[in-house]
Amino acid sequence: MNRKVSLLIILCVITSISCKSGPTQQVSSVAAVVPSPSTVKATGYVTDDANVIDEATRKQLVTTFAALKDRKKIDFSVVTVKSTGDKSVFDYSLALARERRKDSIEANVSRLLLLVAVDDRQWRLQITRNLEPHLTNEILTNMSTPMTDSFRQQQYGEGIRKYVNAIIEKLDQLDIR
Fold it and tell me: Is 33 helix (H, G, I), strand (E, B) or coil?
């Protein structure tokens, strides 16, 4: 029992650390209308609700994700939003990932969902449990530097593409099927 409690505490600490991927946005006195995960749906491989990914990059990502799914049975998707509103980036991305899984007819598929909240300056990658030993928080954070550098220059499509390619390169090195 003590081991389970210890593991749960460690998981909570890691999760809270990984959620702090960027500066937080100050709360304003004006309430913004922000789509909730129930209105923003992860449809297809790329859902660009924030309109920050150019068409060429979107097509490249779709092609890359389709090839990954064929090759490794891994469903990877990207969702951009302006803001997660009053929800944490973790909760928002988790709701999207669960919705995407629920809407899928495919079983035994590993999944990744990258959420980028542009105005909140935060991002989160949700992954299925079977990928966690291979894509630890430390590995994912280290691979995110080129993405966050691009985000600072407001080159979101380029940053997403760099991070996606780094993750897929890592997945290709592993014997995951």
Answer: coil
Could you tell me which residue, 30 or 147, shows the higher pLDDT? 147
- Measured CA to CA, the distance from residue 10 to residue 151 in angstroms comes to 29
* Encoded tokens for 61: 């990502």
Q: Which amino acid is at 69?
A: K
Largest CA distance in the chain: 52
* CB-count exposure of residue 16 (10 Å: 0-12, 13-18, 19+): exposed
**Per-residue pLDDT tens digits for 103-117:** 776 767 899 999 999
Instruction: Copy the structure tokens of residue 13.
Output: 């600490």
The span from the CA of 143 to the CA of 59, in Å, is 22
* The pLDDT value given to residue 150: 96
The residue written with tokens 């990059």 in the block is: 57
Query: What contacts 72, CB < 8 A, 6 or more positions away?
Result: 110, 171, 172, 176, 177
Q: For the chain, which domains are there?
A: 35-173 (3.10.310.50)
User: Tens digit of pLDDT for each residue in 44-61?
Assistant: 899 999 999 999 999 999
